[in-house]
Automatic annotation (TrEMBL):
Record-linked PANTHER family: BLL3656 PROTEIN, HYDROXYPYRUVATE ISOMERASE
InterPro entries in UniProt: IolE/XylAMocC-like, Xyl_isomerase-like_sf, Xyl_isomerase-like_TIM-brl
Source organism superkingdom: Bacteria
Chain ranges of the Xylose isomerase-like TIM barrel domain: 23-245
Matching Gene3D superfamilies: Divalent-metal-dependent TIM barrel enzymes
Classification via Pfam families: AP_endonuc_2
Name of the protein this chain belongs to: Xylose isomerase-like TIM barrel domain-containing protein
Length: 271
């Protein structure tokens, strides 16, 4: 059996520069990591890899020296005014780092236009060896598994995929029976974390939890065993687990990365 890929997601250690992140991933025992090439929010602390050739070179050097590889790059948003050609620089940098997966958010209330743009992005990404993954999140216009699958299937591109994140799966009310029916070819990696407590009524509170307050796998209330059983076996897992409370308590990025990996391995051993 091949060794399952565990990838360190940027959001878990967002304070680190990309070269520092490579170092932490290597020391914690990850084979892969994800690089955030475009910030998720205007307020987010960001290291401009696309614009900064020196930073890219340093990051490539650390990847070479450690043997860590890049799994995915993020985050492109499909908006009403999106022009897919504007994404080319980001795709080129993703290819430069030999990433294979691309994380995409759907922020367009016109589903037909979002579908057309997703198809066009798939066509452009194909030239760079990238597989765009539409990640459903309850506060976006691709709000649950059912809608994300519909967009990806209607776009009808062989490299188009759906990204399942355990937090969003839980908070969007998506169902395991629907996940079990998804074409395995549409699932090339998943994001794993846990989440505590019932789903809040307030979308801003869900958003706050998503960005700041996730739990390590097995330390919350998600049916992660059920989720993993519905996903292809040995699917690469990106560990996206922001824990601002631990950061504020002085728990280092390396410790948090190790805690995430240890908890994931313990969960997999149990199931």
């Amino acid at each position: 059996m091949s060794e399952r890929i565990f990838s360190l997601a940027s959001l878990t250690v967002l304070e680190l520069s990309p070269p520092e992140m490579v170092e932490v991933a290597a020391r914690a025992g990850y084979s892969h990591l994800g690089l955030r090439l475009v910030p998720a929010t205007p307020e987010e602390h960001h290291f401009p890899l696309v614009a900064d050739t020196g930073l890219r070179r340093q990051t490539r050097d650390r990847l070479r020296d450690t043997g860590v590889r890049v799994l995915d790059v993020e985050i492109l948003r499909l908006k009403p005014q999106t022009r897919i050609s504007d994404f080319e620089a980001v795709l080129a940098v993703g290819a430069e780092f030999a990433a294979s997966e691309l994380l995409v958010a759907g922020n367009d209330p016109d589903e037909a236009r979002m579908t057309d743009n997703f198809a066009a992005l798939c066509d452009l990404a194909q030239q760079y060896g990238l597989h765009p993954h539409l990640e459903f999140m309850p506060w976006t216009d691709a709000r649950n598994l059912e809608q994300a699958v519909r967009v990806v299937e209607n776009a009808a591109r062989s490299n188009g995929c759906v990204l399942v994140d355990a937090f969003h799966f839980d908070r969007s009310g998506s169902r395991l029976e629907d996940l079990a029916k998804v074409d395995p070819a549409r699932l090339r990696y998943a994001q794993l974390c846990d989440v505590a407590g019932p789903c809040p009524d307030d979308m801003q509170e869900i958003l706050r939890q998503a960005r700041n307050e996730r739990r390590f796998p097995g330390e919350g209330d998600c049916d992660l065993a059920g989720l993993l059983k519905c996903l292809p076996p040995e699917l690469p897992l990106s560990l996206e687990i922001p824990t601002v409370q631990l950061l504020e308590q002085g728990v280092s990025a390396l410790q948090r990365a190790q805690m995430a990996l240890d908890a994931t391995r313990a969960l997999l051993a149990r199931i």
